[in-house]
Specification:
By secondary structure, the protein is of the alpha/beta class.
């Protein structure tokens, strides 16, 4: 049986249970016949604190139209929403909370399938983590990227340009008045950040995994195509309900590998590795960092979007969208992977898009970069690993041995980075400690500012190392996700001013050049970790969050835990 019947078999007198639920559904004014249709939940995530989702009400109406036209009963329901820019200490702390919200509401309410509507960085992984654990047929619909704004003839998009202008403002090249004008033109429409940041990367990854409709990642939020994709997603949800096509049929070792290839080829966000690890983990699929490096060596960067290139998501949409990228990559992908519509990836790709702008999506034979965007580093400073986005870094700094300038916390960084007395040179290595998942909730603090006195002297990049994350819209020679984190006593906690640190991207190494005896001595002197008194969800987070190498999921959310 389909439809609302599914939810009526839990306990007691089944016929009464069904009778009662139908009685309450009649209160919603729906026709009696509609109650016999397959029920498709629409998980929405609107919030005034999430302007990236501002057009969701209209998008959700398009989904409902598609569901009704295909013979289903749409049932919209809210979950929490995570607006990246507004959550303290960082939206990352709340991704798992949203995942639990989605999981329980999808499982607890009577629905045959669910359309997950989200977009801003953490919302898409949260929705899919939850849906994967719930195990119901599911399909993702992203809200789509912002369109660009204009400033003095130049296109602007959040938020690579935010950082670029801010760096120039810090360096004294952009005036107070000008930065105010730029501020009003960076984010001018509904939708997610306009570049290949985390939201765009996740949209591409979800399409590559097969969990969303083809060519659905890049259509701008305010483009009519977005609403057409909404309608088609609603209709597809009815089909997956009838076919009982659950996420575990779609997300497999093969599709995760495909998604990793795409992450590398689009020059995608470092955060996406954490999210993909967490999402795959919900289905018992490990993401092996060593496999990432192997794939990175053989996957060129093809997409010329900021922060790696010069274009925006709206350009990718106008240029064939993700299908254009997938088509270029086809010889590197497992085309037999099943997608949510029931076709294989190969069937989905067909002959490829009719036209591609080669300034935006490069051919495989002439890539923007020969090797993939990300490298997983290991070494004495990061025994369980660390990540660098080489596609957004300065190759001149790939092989660096430098003197450490250490900041012990986010507060220490804020207090001292612009101090004119700070002992720092352009060839130093900036180190930030205690900004990992346990230390500070893992904020996007890994993009350490260039100390003001160096910025004013024209220094634009330095090697920077931390256990924090970095916004997908940021760029620089930045080593992130150092694991184990400093707050867990990882070697990062033992770095002192003046130590030598060696980064080698070619060898995928990150080493602290300090004798082991000295490190042992420092370890013995480390203060006992402070445990701030927290209650409620923040206590759950502190007690159960896993390291970045394991996707920062909760230990008890993994299957078999
Ligand atoms: Fe929402 Fe960037 S702030 S996607
Ligand atoms: Mg972001």
């Amino acid at each position: 049986m389909s439809g609302i019947y599914r939810g009526l078999v839990s306990y007691g007198d089944r016929d009464f249970s069904r009778f009662l639920r139908r009685a309450f559904l009649h209160a919603s004014g729906r026709s009696p016949e509609s109650l016999d249709r397959p029920v498709v939940g629409i998980a929405t995530s609107t919030s005034d604190f999430n302007p990236c989702h501002r057009q969701q009400p209209e998008l959700v109406r398009s989904v409902a139209r598609g569901i009704v036209a295909a013979g289903g009963l749409p049932m919209e329901f809210p979950t929490i929403s995570l607006g990246e820019s507004f959550l303290e200490p960082t939206a990352m702390v709340y991704r798992n909370l949203m995942a639990m919200d989605v999981e329980e509401l999808v499982r607890a309410q009577p629905m045959d399938a669910v359309v997950l509507v989200g977009g801003c960085d953490k919302t898409v992984p949260a929705q899919l983590m939850g849906a994967f654990s719930a195990g119901r047929p599911a399909i993702q619909l992203v809200t789509g990227p912002m369109s660009t704004g204009r400033y003095q003839g130049e296109r602007l998009g959040a938020c690579t340009d935010c950082r670029w202008f801010w760096a120039r403002y810090r360096a004294g090249e952009v005036s107070e008045t000008e930065i105010g004008q730029v501020e009003r033109n960076l984010a001018t429409t509904a939708g997610t950040c306009a570049v290949m940041g985390t939201a765009s990367t996740m949209a591409c990854i979800v399409e590559a995994l097969g969990m969303a409709l083809p060519d659905s990642a890049a259509a701008p939020a305010v483009h009519a195509d977005r609403l057409r994709i909404g309608e088609a997603t609603g209709a597809a949800a009815v089909s997956i309900a009838l076919a009982e096509r659950t996420p575990d049929q779609i997300v497999t070792a093969a599709s995760v590998r495909n998604a990793l290839r795409v992450l590398l080829a689009i020059g995608g966000s470092t955060n996406a590795l954490i999210h993909l690890t967490a999402m795959a983990g919900r289905l018992g699929l490990p993401v092996d960092p060593d496999e990432l490096n192997e794939l990175s060596e053989t996957t060129p960067v093809l997409v010329e979007l900021k922060p790696t290139g010069a274009n925006y998501m709206e350009d990718l949409h106008a240029s064939g969208g993700l299908p254009a990228v997938l088509h270029e990559l086809r010889d590197l992908l497992d085309l037999s992977a099943l997608t949510v519509t029931g076709e294989t990836l190969g069937e989905r790709l067909g002959a490829g898009p009719s036209w591609v702008d080669r300034e935006v999506v490069r051919p495989l034979s002439e890539p923007s970069r020969e090797k993939g965007g990300l490298v997983w580093l290991r070494g004495s400073l990061a025994p369980s690993g660390a990540l660098i986005k080489r596609s957004a870094a300065d190759p001149a700094l790939f092989e660096t041995t430098g003197r450490a300038v250490v900041f012990t916390s986010l507060e220490d960084l804020a207090a001292r980075v612009d101090d004119p007395e700070l002992d720092v040179r352009p060839d130093d290595v900036l180190v930030l400690q205690n900004a990992g998942p346990l230390g500070a909730g893992m904020p996007e603090a890994g993009y350490l500012p260039i100390p003001a006195k160096l910025a004013r002297a024209g220094v634009r990049d330095m090697v920077r190392i931390s256990d924090a994350r970095m916004s997908g819209t940021a760029y620089g020679t930045i080593v992130l996700h150092v694991t184990p984190e400093a707050a867990l006593g990882g070697p990062l906690a033992l770095v002192r001013n003046g130590d030598r640190i060696r980064l080698s991207v070619s060898e995928a190494r990150l080493d602290l050049l300090v004798p082991p005896e000295e490190l042992d001595r420092r370890r013995a002197d480390l203060p006992a970790p402070g445990t701030p008194p927290v209650t409620g969800y923040r206590k759950l987070f502190r007690d159960h969050v896993l390291g970045a190498d394991r996707g920062c999921d909760f230990d008890f959310c993994l299957p078999g835990s």
